[in-house]
TrEMBL record:
Organism of provenance: Candidatus Spechtbacteria bacterium SB0662_bin_43
Molecular function GO terms recorded: structural constituent of ribosome
InterPro entries: Ribosomal_uS2 (IPR001865), Ribosomal_uS2_bac/mit/plastid (IPR005706), Ribosomal_uS2_CS (IPR018130), Ribosomal_uS2_flav_dom_sf (IPR023591)
GO biological process, one term: translation
Gene transcribed to yield this protein: rpsB
UniProt KW keywords: Ribonucleoprotein, Ribosomal protein
Name under which the protein is recorded: Small ribosomal subunit protein uS2
Length: 239
């Protein structure tokens, strides 16, 4: 009986240590830093732990809880071979978002959100096909039949199209789910996802409305360290 109790106590101690380490990881990455009080969205109060020097601090236990819900959903998407679109258009996070999508074999938009990407898919699809055809043309012998000036103009056009469509060129249709690293900055993407009924996982800072997201992750969406940590957890769930 004593041995059983000792085993249980050891397991509980290990789990407690793991939980503390997990929360410390969030703390070290600055996940808990929110915005100033005047910028708060009232729907975020359940996720706020305290206010210090006029700044709200996010409850990282809530972050851990909501993150696990999001990861469970994303694991289910992976098991069902669903397409997930990563979106992060502010400059500091573009590389991390693209890398996360590529590591998991998913899709990404990082330069800017093309208005109507989800709600006007037929037009978007035509744009992607134009990009592919122009790219194929550049690789073919036909390319040399154009003048130097024409090739220069088409090359510039191709680079613009590549920056816009490279991350979704092979998506082949609307995504089954989306991951946003800044639901406030990419509000149009979130709005379109809701209109099309596409489940949304997103980092939600204290100045954003968590109700527009199916799986909100309360966290600092300004610090690259915070965003990178959340993305690393998502990548781990999708690998």
């Amino acid at each position: 009986m004593a041995d059983t109790q000792d085993t249980k106590t050891n397991k509980e101690s290990k789990q407690e240590a793991k939980d503390i380490s997990h929360l410390q990881e969030f703390f070290d990455a600055g996940v808990h830093f929110g915005h100033i009080k005047s910028a708060v969205h009232p729907k975020m109060f359940p996720y706020i732990f305290s206010t210090i020097n006029n700044t709200h601090f996010i409850n990282i236990e809530k972050t851990s809880e909501k993150l696990e819900e999001a990861l469970t959903f994303l694991r289910e998407c992976k098991e069902q071979n669903k397409k997930i679109l990563f979106v992060g258009t502010k400059f500091p996070v573009r590389e991390s978002v693209q890398k996360s999508a590529q590591e998991t074999g998913m899709f990404f938009i990082t330069t800017y959100w093309p208005g109507g990407f989800l709600t006007n898919w037929n037009t978007v699809r035509d744009g992607i096909e134009h990009f592919k055809k122009l790219e194929d043309l550049q690789k073919s012998p036909e390319w040399e039949k154009y003048t130097k000036q024409e090739r220069a103009l088409m090359s510039r056009d191709l680079e613009k199209l590549r920056s816009r469509w490279e991350g979704v060129r092979d998506m082949g249709g609307l995504p089954d789910a989306m991951v946003l690293v800044d639901v406030h900055g990419d509000a149009i993407a979130a709005q379109e996802a809701r209109k099309k009924g596409i489940p949304l996982v997103a980092i939600v800072d204290t100045n954003s409305n968590p109700d527009v997201v199916d799986y909100p992750i309360p966290a600092n969406d300004d610090a690259l360290s915070s965003i990178s940590l959340i993305l690393s957890k998502i990548v781990g769930a999708l690998k």
